[in-house]
Amino acid sequence: MAQVAFGVWDGVVHDARNMAIDAQPSISALKNFDEFDDGNPIRAFFGDRGFFVFDETVSLVDALFHYMNKAAEESCGACTPCRMGTMLVRDALDAMRRGIDSPLDFDEIEILGEQMTETSLCGLGKTCSVALLDVIRNFRDRIEKEVAAKRPIRAQHGMAYMTAPCIEACPSKINVPRYIDYIRDGKPENSLGVLLQKYPMAATCGRVCVRYCEEACRRKFVDEAVGIKTLKRYVADQQKGPNALKFTRDMIRKPLADGMRVAVVGAGPAGISCAYHLLLQGYHVDLFEKHEQAGGMAQIGIPSYRLPKDTLAMETDIIAALGGRFLFGQQLGRDFTVEDLFARGYKAVFLGLGCQAGTALGVEGEEHARDGYHRGIDFLLKVHDHVAGVRNLDLSGEVVVVGAGNVAMDCVRSAVRLGADNVHVVYRRTRGDMPADDEEIVAADHEGIHLHTLTNPTRILTEDGKVVGVELVKMEQTEPDDSGRRKVRPIPGTEYTIPCDTIVAAIGQQVEDEAMVESDGIAFNRWKCVETDDALLTSRPGVFAGGDCVTGPSTLIYAMSAGLQAARNINDWIQLGTIRFFKRTRMRQLLEDNKILANDVVETPVRAAYRVHNPALDPELRKHMFGEVEQTISNREAYAEAQRCMRCYRVYSVITQHSIPEGAT
């Protein structure tokens, strides 16, 4: 375990050299700080809350130079304290480490650091001097000793990393403040470019993303979180018609030889993302999809009132524009095997199979329910076909949907549009425990859904195979489980019956055709998901997997993130025969494992201004149609919302014993 020699964190001075360690237990609990990469010890760490030194021989002057150099590079220049202060301090430290006369002494550097902390207009300027001031105020004797002889200080190895709470919360690590900056500057095309570095489905994500970034947004401590998802949609929707960004093969910088072919199985968000990044790297990519359209769960599982299918098609078509090839009606295990793909000359295979098999309720009478019983995904597929005009789906009477995730909310809101008289949601926990996006729950409320919480089905009632009702039991909360969420149990004697004509079981999904996939040498874990390592490699060499088939039913943004990671690792596997070390990923692990990002807000001078919301159709109107409910905000509204971002950037750096391997980011 790494032992801290000295440092300052959250204003508390730690100095193991004289045992004045009031909070030693918290220091000794640092996780994974021994080595940055294999055989490369971490000597020091600097951040927005202070610094730790593990190796007493570290040069603080050189370490602070690299830290302030990153801050100066990333300063937006909007305010003088940060723009000028970071450069002046950096240049002064640079002169000191090179052994020449510095334009500033430590007293003057301290004054500049204080000015930046007190008067900068964003999080970067307000926090980048914290470690600097901690060193000057508490370990000045060490830095004065370092520069006393006016000799060059040996340069140290390490890296600096800039991030923000919203970036770290995003599975794809989108640089959210940067794309918001471009909106503020009136350059939505540049903003879109930031998004396209990570995934091609910006307009789709701008409609259905579950907004992990907004949960982490520090603006919520002032008034409301910035409408990051709303702005993403705005940026993507600016690129329609004559302003549309055209994808062509000219965008591929270095096309590879014809033999550099990769097979992607599943044209859902994970597969589309993986293919997109492989194509940009010059590979020849074929996508095998069992359905006749691309999009996966985004196509069949998200109703068109949330995600118009022409919007989705516009983004999946990017693959063909870049030279990729869709092979529809091709199912793994039925029409081909992994062995077949390698025999055809593909260098690697990515499995983005998704979870398109529904889960049964497991209650009495379920096996007899034939007419009026659906599993969640099957129901949404029928809704998709109904809207597409392929086959008609009529609902009437009472509909009961069991479950409270996003799939369940899509089912209930679709049932309303299909003509159900009343739609009921049955959920065994409380409303606060519902896993669906809160916006979807509120929208369902507005559309007249009846919510039955702390209630669970015990029996499905049928007559000649036709659903006629469901027996429910009341539940009560008990002690918390290992995750901290309270368990529930049925209350004896509280059973009652709801008459209904349709029951939809929307309680989970799993991978289809697991047995056929396993027969190809692909191992599954006890949760019936494809088993992979950290590089998304499966049990079969050269076969990678990602998305719902690995994690279980998750979100579109997680699937696209997996596609990006897989494409990066597939490239390494083919070109190098191994997976490279990624230093930015390692830094993110340090931040996450040790909860380095403080869960508070640095006070910045902002005016209270509540967020802009997407205009939406009136609930009484939208209940009768599958047209898109939410609309895009205006240019004026987008500019106003972008102004609310506080740019909560933070800089972190490590000093290491040896140089850090150069991998991708």
UniProtKB/TrEMBL annotation:
GO terms for molecular function: formate dehydrogenase (NADP+) activity. It holds the Pfam family Fer4_20. Its EC number is 1.17.1.10. Coiled coil: none annotated. It comes from Rhodobium gokarnense. SMART domains: NADH_4Fe-4S (SM00928). The keyword Nuclease does not apply. Keywords: Oxidoreductase. Residues 61-106 form the NADH-ubiquinone oxidoreductase 51kDa subunit iron-sulphur binding domain. This is Formate dehydrogenase beta subunit. InterPro entries: DPD_II (IPR028261), FAD/NAD-bd_sf (IPR036188), FAD/NAD-binding_dom (IPR023753), Helical_ferredxn (IPR009051), NADH-UbQ_OxRdtase_51kDa_CS (IPR001949), Nuop51_4Fe4S-bd (IPR019575), Nuop51_4Fe4S-bd_sf (IPR037207). It is an enzyme of class 1 (oxidoreductase).
